[in-house]
Amino acid sequence: MFDFDSARKLVEVDDLKMYFPIHTGLLRRHTGNVKAVDGVSFDIFEGETLGLVGESGCGKSTCGRTVLRLYEPTSGQIRLDGRGLAWGNPVARRVRNRSDRVGNWAAGLVFTIGAGLLVGALVRGSVTGGWAIAGLVALVIALTLAALYGAAYVSRRMLMSSEGVSDKDFAPSEGALRRLRPTMQMVFQDPQASLNPRMTLAGIIGEPLSEHSGMSAKEREARIYELMDAVGLNRDFANRYPHEFSGGQRQRIGIARALALNPKFIVCDEPIAALDVSIQAQVVNLLEDLQERLGLTYLFISHDLSMVRHIADRVAVMYLGKVVELAPRDVLYDEPLHPYTRALLSAVPEPDPAAHETAQREVLQGDVPSPANPPKGCNFCTRCPQVMDICRRIDPEYLEVQPRRFVACHLHYEHQETAEATAA
Amino acid sequence: MPDGGLASVLDVKDLKTVFRTRRGEVHAVNNVTFHLEAGELLGVVGESGSGKSVTMMSLIGLLPQPPAEIRGGTVRFEGKDLLACTEEELRAVRGARIGFVFQDPMTSLNPVFPVGFQIVEPLRKHMKLSKSKARDRAVELLELVGIPDARRRLDDYPHQFSGGMRQRVMIAIALACDPQVLIADEPTTALDVTIQAQILELIKELRHKLGMAIVWITHDLGVIAGIADRVMVMYGGQVVEQGPVKELFANPKHPYTRMLLETVPSVRGDRVERLRVIQGQPPILAQDPDSCPFRPRCPFAFERCARQNPPRLPVGPGHDAACFWNVDTGAPRDV
Fold it and tell me: Model's pTM, two decimal places?
C-alpha cells in the first residue's frame, strides 16, 4: 500500500474548469457551454497512481488533457512540481489582458504621432535624401515597439502591485510551457490512431528526443534502443512501421515514446481499452514495472473498474464533469460512500456465475444528462436512488468527510453536520 | 462431441469457413460444432479474431462470398440445412425466424429513416401485416423493450435516441417477428456499465417472457457469467471448450480458458498483487489448421500438439475441451 504520509504532492489541481463554447445560429453566437470539466480538485502524490474512472462523456479524458495543458483551461489552477501550469489567479489573467491593452494603445499613439510628424516633414520638404528618410522610418518603428513592450511592462508592474498579484500567478507562456513538456507525458487510448503510420518505430520514439534534447544522432540511437528494451520490444523492429505490429505491441511503442524524455508524470488515457483481454494484463504489468523502476507518477484514466482496482493507489470517480468521490482504493471498493460509486460498482459484472446469484444489483434508471445542460442542484439527482429534496436545489460541496476520503453528496454532508452538532 | 439433443433448435456441425486472400487462405472458422437448445442462452466468448462473429455470420449466409468461402458443414434449423438454402429461402429465415442484434446500434440503424419505419419494415415483409397493424405492433415492441412514450417516439430518428435506447430499438427490431433464435453479437460492448446493466436486466426479463433461444457473443467474461446457461470458448477459429456456465467457470479444463479467467482482475474478490499474463500474441489465422491454435502460447504444449489438432474430448457432464493435456492431473490424456 502506498505511504501517503511521507509522500510529496507532485500534481495539484484546484477547482479546474474546462468549458467548450457552443456557437449556434447564423451569426455563430456564443449561446452556451459544454461543461466537460466543472470544478475538479485533486492532488497526486509523487510515485502514486491515481485512477480516474467514470462513464463515457463524464469528462475524464478532458480532465487528463487539461491537466497536461493540452487545452487552455477556462479557470482553475494546475501545479506540477510546484510550478503553475495555468493562471494561478483569475486576477492575474485580467492584469495581463489590461496591461497588454495599455501596451497596444501606447504603441498606436506613438506610431500615429511619429508617422504624422514624418509625413509632415516630408511634405514640407525639410527632410531630403534617402538615408535620412530611412533613418527616421526606422526610428518611428523602434519607438513604436518600445512603447508596445515598455508600456505593457510598466503597466503590468503597476497593476500587479496594486492588485497584489505575483509573478508565479501568471500562466507560463507557450515557450515556457514547451520547456516544461518533457516532465509530463501522455499515453493515448488508441495506439493505431496515435502513431504516425508513415514513421518508423525508431522515428516515433526518437521524435521527442530530437524536439526537446540536444542529443547527437548516436546518443539518440542508443536511447531509442534503451527505451525499446525497457518496454519489451525487439531491437530488430526499429525500422518497421506501426501497421506491422499488433495492438499490444503498438501500445508498447506509445509507452516508449512517452518515456523518452524521462518524465515524472504520465497521463494514461484508457491505455488498455482497445486491447484484447489476454493482452491487457501484459500492458498493465509493464506500466507497473516501469513505475517501480523509474519512480513514475500516473493519472490512470479508465472505465474498467476492475483494472483500476488493480493498478491504482487512490481512485477518483467522475460523473458529468465533477469528481463525486475520491478515496484510497480499498475503502472505495469496499464501502463506497457516494450512491453513484455504489451503483457503478454493482453494475460491473463479475466473472463468477455464483456471485451473480447472490449479487445485490442496483440498476440505475435513465441516462446521463447532457453536460451542456446539467440539472439544477446535484448533477446525479436525476438518477440517484437516494435522492432527497435538497439534492434538487443545492449542489453538494466536495468535502473531506473522513481522512483522505472526499465525497460530494448531501447524504454525507448532513451526516457530518449532525456529527459536529453532537460533538459540540 | 456434444450431441444435439431432441430439443435443439439450431444444430451446427463441422462448419468450416475460409477467406481467400492474396497471401493465402485464412481459416476463420475451423470445424465448429455446436447446438442450441430451445429457450437456452449460449454464451460465446473469445478475443477479437477468434472467429465468433464469423461463425454466426456464416451460418445464416451474411458473409460476402467471395472472399469468404464456406467449405463444409451443416446447419440444421427448423428441418432445413441453412447452408443448402437458396438466397430466397434464407431471406425468409433472417430477421423472421432468426433475429440479430449487432454491437454498434448507431451503425446498424439507418440514420435517414425514423425508427418506427425500421421496426415496421420486417413486420410488413415477413408477417404481411397491414400498415396500421404493423404500427400497433411496433408500439407494443418498443414498450416491451422499455422505451417510454413509445407511440410518440416511433417517428424519431436514431440520432435522437441515446446509446442504450438505440440498443433497445435494435432489440425491438430483432424481436419483431417472434424469432425462435436471437443472435446478439457484442450487444453491450459499446455501452457504459450502468447502461449495460439495464440491457442485461432487459434480456433476462424478455427470455422468460418470450422463451426464445439466444446466442450471446462477447469478450466480457463477467457478462457471460451473469447471463449464460452454457458457454462456448473460441480461440483461433475453433471451439476450445464448452460446458455449463458454473461448471466451466469453476473447473476450466482448457489451458486457455483457465489462464484467461486468471488474467481478469475482479472488482469484489481478492486483489492480486500481480496479474497473471498469457504470453505472446493472439494467433494469426493463416496458420496451419492441423495443429492446436493455442500451442505457441500454451505452457503445457508438447510434441503432439504440433502434429495434430486436438478434438473436443469429454471432460465432464455436458463439458468438453479440445486439449490433449489434462490440466488437473498434469499428464497427457490417453486418446
Answer: 0.83
